[in-house]
Amino acid sequence: MALKITDECINCDVCAPECPNGAISQGEETYVIDPNLCTECVGHYETSQCVEVCPVDCIIKDPDHQETEEELRAKYERLIGGG
């Protein structure tokens, strides 16, 4: 499942640099996560780095983009050119 940033985001800019896939960018009002690039850090880290650094806990699992651990790993492989 990809992650998403809720409207509680305060635009502090700590999450974007932490994303190893470049999935986080500034949206119209708050930061947004591209579900096509988000692997919840599977393949890179044990935990989602954006969630770890977010000071307001506004990053949640996106119910509109549900993926299994295997699907996230496959996406990671595609993104790094391994599959």
From TrEMBL:
InterPro entries: 4Fe4S_Fe-S-bd, 4Fe4S_Fe_S_CS, PSI_iron-sulfur_center, YfhL-like. GO terms for molecular function: 4 iron, 4 sulfur cluster binding; metal ion binding. Residues 1-29, 31-64 form the 4Fe-4S ferredoxin-type domain. It comes from Caldichromatium japonicum. This is YfhL family 4Fe-4S dicluster ferredoxin. SUPFAM superfamilies: 4Fe-4S ferredoxins. It comes from the Bacteria. Its cofactor is [4Fe-4S] cluster. Keywords: 4Fe-4S, Electron transport, Iron, Iron-sulfur, Metal-binding, Transport. The keyword Transmembrane helix does not apply. GO terms for cellular component: cytoplasm.
